[in-house]
Amino acid sequence: MKRKQSGMTLLSFVMVLAVVGFAAYIAMRLFPMYQEYYAVKSSMKGLANEAGVSDMDPGRINELFFRRLDINYATNIKPSHVKIERMEGGWNMKVSYEVRRPLVGNLDVVGNFNAEQAMTRRGAD
């Protein structure tokens, strides 16, 4: 009685390894962009929970926000990306920015990120 062996050949193993490796490479290129976005979101939320933020002037809010970003090593956000508008009971902060990272050769990955947070007397929503 003959038994037929089954399993992966070397060629199929190399193909699977190449696909998994490319997916891991893409993930390593995208992770810092999203990590920075979550740093922006957490900085905004933490600032919204700060006492008296609704009574601060926009310059002070901007200064505190960028201090928090420096702590989180978020370097792609510039003051021109931040808009602070008056709203009932406080301020509304909007951060809109774009990150471009090289991927392979002349191909780039572009991420457009937008975050919004109310800075009111009630704190973070």
- Could you tell me how far the N terminus lies from the C terminus, measured between alpha carbons in angstroms? 71 Å
Order of helices and strands: HHEEE
- Count of helical stretches: 2
Mean pLDDT: 91
Q: Estimate the helix proportion, in percent.
A: 40-55%
Radius of gyration: 23 Å
Domains counted in the coordinates: how many? 1
Q: Ranges with pLDDT <50 over ≥5 residues?
A: none
Return the structural class. alpha+beta
Please state how the strands of the largest beta sheet are arranged side by side. Answer: 1-2-3
- Described by the principal axes of the CA atoms, the overall outline is elongated
What does this structure look like?
The model has no long low-confidence stretch (mean pLDDT 91). The termini are far apart. The longest helix is centred in the N-terminal third of the chain and has 39 residues, at 10-48. It contains two helices and three strands, in the order H-H-E-E-E. A hairpin with a 2-residue loop joins strand 2 and strand 3 (107-120). It has a three-stranded antiparallel beta sheet with strand order 1-2-3, covered by helices on one side. The radius of gyration is 23 Å and the shape is elongated. It has one domain. It has helices at 10-48, 58-71, and strands at residues 82-87, 90-104, 107-120. It is of the alpha+beta class.
